């Protein structure tokens, strides 16, 4: 198990569909070092409009490396997909865009990867050896795959095919809300989803994040899996903390 002791401070920013949130992060504790700033995501959420908001938030945070989450595949700083964001992001060099807008060194990472890394360092998967899959249930389904605490980026397990459908269109929290599903109805879909992941990856642990994970007692007990499944611990701040940690490591 690799032990990492990331020290010092960095700034984390989480770009989401409805809000863009940021704060300085205390990396020894894995916690926000000051109150989070939140600004509504501009609509349409084009690259330039979002970059301006990120710059506004970063401008109110102390010096230091900046880590930013984005809800798409991010290959070496470049967005490659846009399942739930403006299609203009595809092939945008998000790191270069945000470096230009903020005047700071910026590391960009997939949102679920950032959250998963934070859970592995400070949260529900802390000190867990072996294969861990962190899923975030929100507008879409995000995933992070970790082996002994090391991240394999951009797994996109929300898009596996389950029962003939792109999994997130049926099992994301947005599907539960849109279709007004009961917890039992939604849990049936989650059961099919996590069974499929189990068959493919044989993980040692599932961690479930996303806003709905604070209501985990409504649906996690309904699942029957061979893999232990637990709620995320860092909740809303996992993305900010994970992105800041990655930025600090890159700067070190
Ligand atoms: C995207 C992922 C993202 C997830 C959660 C999915 O639709 O493809 O990149 O991590 O939503 O935001």
Cα-atom radius of gyration: 17 Å
DSSP helix fraction: 25-40%
The SSE order reads EEEEHEEEHEHEEEEEHHHEEH
Bound molecules: beta-D-glucopyranose
- Tally of strands: 15
Largest sheet: 6 strands, mixed
CATH topology of the largest domain: Nucleotidyltransferase, domain 5
The name of the CATH superfamily of the largest domain reads ATPase, nucleotide binding domain
Which word captures the global form?
globular
Q: What is the CATH domain class of the largest domain?
A: Alpha Beta
Can you tell me the residue ranges where pLDDT is under 50 for at least 5 consecutive residues? none
Q: How many helices in DSSP terms?
A: 7
Domain unit count: 2
Overall pLDDT confidence: 95
Beta-strand content estimate: 25-35%
Overall structural class, as computed from helix and strand content, comes to alpha/beta
What does this entry look like structurally?
This protein has 252 residues and is α/β, with parallel strands linked by helices. The chain has helices at residues 47-59, 94-102, 111-122, 167-171, 173-178, 183-201, 238-251; strands at residues 9-15, 19-26, 31-32, 37-40, 66-70, 74-75, 78-79, 106-110, 131-137, 141-147, 150-152, 161-162, 165-166, 205-209, 229-231. Helix 1 (47-59) crosses helix 2 (94-102) and helix 3 crosses helix 7 (238-251). The radius of gyration is 17 Å and the shape is globular. The relative contact order is 0.18. It binds beta-D-glucopyranose.
Brief overview:
The protein is an alpha/beta fold. The chain has helices spanning 47-59, 94-102, 111-122, 167-171, 173-178, 183-201, 238-251, and strands at residues 9-15, 19-26, 31-32, 37-40, 66-70, 74-75, 78-79, 106-110, 131-137, 141-147, 150-152, 161-162, 165-166, 205-209, 229-231.
């Amino acid at each position: 198990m690799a032990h990492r002791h990331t020290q010092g401070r960095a700034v984390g920013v989480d770009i989401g569909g409805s809000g863009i949130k940021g704060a300085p992060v205390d990396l020894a504790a894995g916690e926000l070092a000051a109150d989070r700033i939140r600004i509504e995501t501009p609509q349409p959420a084009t690259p330039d409009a979002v970059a301006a908001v990120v710059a506004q938030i970063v401008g109110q945070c102390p010096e230091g490396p900046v880590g930013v989450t984005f809800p798409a595949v991010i290959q070496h700083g470049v967005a490659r997909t846009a399942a739930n964001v403006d299609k203009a992001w595809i092939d945008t060099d998000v790191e270069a865009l945000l470096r230009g807008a903020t005047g700071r060194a910026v590391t960009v990472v997939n949102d679920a990867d950032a959250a998963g890394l934070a859970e592995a360092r400070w949260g529900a998967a802390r000190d867990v050896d072996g294969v861990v899959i962190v899923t975030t249930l929100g507008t879409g389904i995000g995933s992070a795959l970790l082996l002994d605490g090391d991240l394999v980026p951009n797994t996109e397990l929300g898009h596996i095919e389950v029962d003939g459908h792109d999994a997130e269109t049926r099992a994301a929290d947005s599907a539960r809300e849109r279709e007004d599903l009961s917890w039992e109805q939604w849990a049936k879909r989650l059961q099919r989803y996590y069974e499929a992941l189990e068959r493919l990856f044989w993980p040692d642990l599932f961690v479930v994040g996303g806003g709905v994970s604070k209501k985990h007692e409504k649906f996690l007990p309904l699942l029957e899996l061979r893999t232990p499944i637990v709620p995320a611990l860092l909740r809303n701040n996992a993305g900010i903390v994970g992105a800041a940690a990655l930025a600090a490591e890159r700067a070190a």
